[in-house]
What does this fold into?
Amino acid sequence: MAMSSATLAARGVSRFYAGRHAVAEASLDLRAGRIACLLGPSGCGKSTLLRLIAGLEPVDAGEISIGGVLMSAPGVVTPPEARGVGLVFQDFALFPHLSVADNIGFGLKTLPAEQRRERVAALLARFHLEALAGAWPHTLSGGEQQRVAIARALVRAPSVLLLDEPFSGLDGQLRAAVRTSALTDLRAAGAAVLIVTHDPQEALLMADDLVLMSAGRILQTGRPQDCYLRPVSLAAARLLGEAEDLPARIENGVAHTAFGAVPAPGMADGAGRVMVRPEALGFDPSGAPVEIVDIAFGGSFHSVTLSSQGVIMTARTVAPPPPVGTRTGVSLDPMRTAVYQGE
It folds into this structure.
């Protein structure tokens, strides 16, 4: 994507701590009206990258531009308040001594009082917080606190909104409900949104654009379905859920494994690896022979451990599988596999 089409563009951004990369040559674009999710395990550098974008830390290499204006480069750090960026922290960081209305309006102190009241009233209405305008933060539920935090971040109409693990402090059904509500609010804001998360299901459900990160490096960017179904590497695949790694033999554009064959167009004959999602395996009496060695009930699915040619693999099925000890056949769904060249 060309830099001019992005609300925010990061190019080759790096950050060092104690001589090691926390972020290494990271590049990404954020676009107005779209939600991007930055997904990676704890310690991968995703929160550091968010802090670099926000201007809370300097970059050691690379550039960050917002609206085509350079904000960060070695020796250049535009402060957060001058970037047009809203930030929502993991713990929401509401001011305990201020009411809901005063929390939302905190960033508008330079505006005339009447304009400030109008802007706060508009956000209270948008987030259905009018009845809580005078409430104190400690009296609010987790979902209400989050709505206040997002409203406060949007009060100055930022072009970029950054959220660091915004749902991690919420449990179970509340988390799902708040996430759904927040998604509607974030889309309505029209800003370029970046959500940092370590939850692959959350990232897949929320993102228009997905950014996969590991060990300080961005592995892949793209639509959620493309990243899930066509991961560029096994490491990228595993960030989005379970993924088996099967040895394969590639011959005439087909990768052969102990659990069946899948197309490998354009690949040279020789050794390969096949990434297989658990749901890619289906029972097929005419398929590759396997033995069922274990079954675990997972509520909405069954986790089935299979053995073939000394290779063990786990499949996932909704329908009850044959009993342990059964010898049957399986086939692979090519849409839920990926083939890589080499050992």
Summary: The chain has a mean pLDDT of 92. The CA atoms of residues 146 and 242 lie 30 Å apart.
